[in-house]
Specification:
alpha/beta; Rossmann fold; 7-stranded mixed beta sheet; about 30% helix
């Protein structure tokens, strides 16, 4: 049966409407904005050698913000056959990450009563693939210059707790969603209106930039980053070794993610 031009046009319109209805019904409407916690893509580990993880510290750095991710990266390993390590594998360990602290000098840092001597200064620190920024007080031109230069080439720059204020203060979170410790969300939203802070999630990962909520949420974000490099099995092996039984590093939204209002 022949179709007129008008009939073909009407059929095309109807087909387009039906396709849009199917997409919407499956939650796949076009141009739908990404969830603030949607998993970022996988990362390619180096062919040889370890992945450098720099912890940027200054006075009043929070101990848990450092120790949690430090332990995750420091305990992630494979066997010599490239399998996730298990206690039954004994000493057959291939460590995957090289963790170190970096600051403006080698002067001891007062981490809320715990003294930390930085491994490196900004002048001689190895080039990092991952940068971790815990909550801390220090801020300065040298720190800013180092962070901006190195985050541009790093795979991931991640903050923990109010370490997000360092990223926000240097304009690195402008126009993005981010999270931080729930006690400071409203204040930080007011201070950094160019950032869209959200609550109800352990972390927000945008690929090269990621932010974790308070304290222990840094463990979940670090495990998530390990999974981006080496897969869920390796990250789970690390979590088991750490006796970390939370599953929130796999699905960080423990509540409905909602925006933070600075006026509340």
């Amino acid at each position: 049966m022949r179709r007129t031009a008008k009939g073909l046009w009407m059929a095309a319109v109807i087909g387009l409407i039906l396709n849009l209805m199917v997409l919407v019904s499956h939650g796949k409407a076009p141009n739908k904005p990404q969830s603030s916690t949607q998993r970022a893509g996988s990362l390619k580990p180096p062919a040889t050698g370890k992945i450098n993880v720099a912890f940027l510290i200054s006075d009043l750095a929070d101990v848990m913000d450092i120790a949690g991710p430090w332990e995750v990266f420091g305990d992630s390993m494979l066997t010599t056959k490239g399998k996730p390590w298990h206690p039954s594998d004994g000493d057959d360990m291939v460590m995957l990450f090289n963790v170190y602290t970096v600051s403006d000098s080698l002067k001891p840092v007062n981490a809320n009563g715990l003294t930390i001597v930085p491994n490196y200064s900004f002048d001689n620190a190895p080039k990092p693939e991952i940068i971790v920024i815990p909550a801390q007080q220090g801020r300065g031109a040298t720190q800013k210059a180092w962070l901006l230069a190195n985050s541009a080439t790093a795979d991931v720059t991640m903050s923990v707790c109010t370490g997000a204020s360092v990223l926000a203060g240097y304009g690195m979170l402008d126009g993005q969603t981010a999270t931080t410790h729930h006690s400071f969300e409203q204040g930080m939203q007011k201070e950094f209106p160019a950032v869209h802070f959200v609550s109800g999630t352990r972390f927000v990962d945008h690929g090269k930039i990621a932010t974790a909520g308070g304290l222990t949420s840094g463990i979940d974000l670090a495990l998530h980053v390990v999974a981006r490099y080496y897969g869920t099995e390796v990250a789970q092996s690390t979590a088991d070794l750490l006796e970390h039984h939370s599953e929130l590093w796999k699905n960080p939204e423990y509540d409905q993610v909602k925006p933070v209002s600075a006026s509340q």
